[in-house]
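Chain and conformation:
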Amino acid sequence: MLMVCVLPAAANAVPYVFDSGDFLAESSAWEAWADMLTRHATQFDGLKGCLDDKAACTRRMRSLHVVLSQGTALPREKQIRLVNRYVNRKRYNEDRRKIIRNEEGKLTIPSHWATLVEFLEKGGDCEDFTTAKYLMLRHFGFAAEDMRVVVVYDRSQRAHHAVLAVRFDGETIWVLDTDNRIYRKRRPLGYRYVYAVNELGIWDHDIRLPRRRR
């Protein structure tokens, strides 16, 4: 039986608590996420010429060169705002997942996480928007332990959604959404945190999801 995790009142004063949630496993245990990180490292190494010289960039990569080169000298707060605006302007594509039946007859829905390059070329869903922000801020020097891709349940939409939690200056925490909102004091209204992931691990926020009405 799932238990509902009730956060203390003090925890509601911030948009996300990095010490919350049960640690489940190393991030490598999630094959789809680990595979995305491997592909990203390979693809980003291939972009070194573009990052050094805008003339060497493909059409879709030119804007990335400008953002990463001009954003390097900005303070942390402005880097976060820059990345949030830049990514949110990209094309939204719903991730169409196919249901697969394995040899034992079990149905699974494989998840696909796009790399930064794949996202810029083809767009993506909310998970891909959030991952792109994570990867760009990593390029700016943000530590993996100070960021988490957080999957939430949006009660108003009755659907899952993804946001990025960022901790900087030691204690300041912002939550970046796909509509350019940045939550700085309280958690987004109607969002329930379900799980979180970064390069270091996976966390379960032990949230009971609403049952579907029959």
Observations:
- The mean pLDDT is 85.
